[in-house]
C-alpha cells in the first residue's frame, strides 16, 4: 500500500519490469512524469511521517533523490533490461 499522493507499488513494479523497448512513447512519458511526481512527494514528506512500507518502497525504488541507481534499476541492469 502506498501513502496518499504517492505512486502505488504495483504501478512502480509494472513500469520497472516492462522492457523499455516494449513501451510506447505515451508509456515512457507517463513513467517519467509519475516518477518525477512520486520523487517530489517522497522528498516533501518527512521520513518520520512515512509509513514503514513507504520507507521500504522508497529504498527499493530509489526515491532518495541521489545519483545511486535504485535496487530495481540495478536488477534490470543485471539481467540486461536497463538503459545503463
TrEMBL record:
<feature type="compositionally biased region" description="Polar residues">
    <location>
        <begin position="39"/>
        <end position="70"/>
    </location>
</feature>
<feature type="region of interest" description="Disordered">
    <location>
        <begin position="1"/>
        <end position="84"/>
    </location>
</feature>
<feature type="compositionally biased region" description="Basic and acidic residues">
    <location>
        <begin position="19"/>
        <end position="37"/>
    </location>
</feature>
<feature type="compositionally biased region" description="Polar residues">
    <location>
        <begin position="1"/>
        <end position="11"/>
    </location>
</feature>
<dbReference type="InterPro" id="IPR007250">
    <property type="entry name" value="HSP9_HSP12"/>
</dbReference>
<protein>
    <recommendedName>
        <fullName>12 kDa heat shock protein</fullName>
    </recommendedName>
</protein>
<dbReference type="Pfam" id="PF04119">
    <property type="entry name" value="HSP9_HSP12"/>
</dbReference>
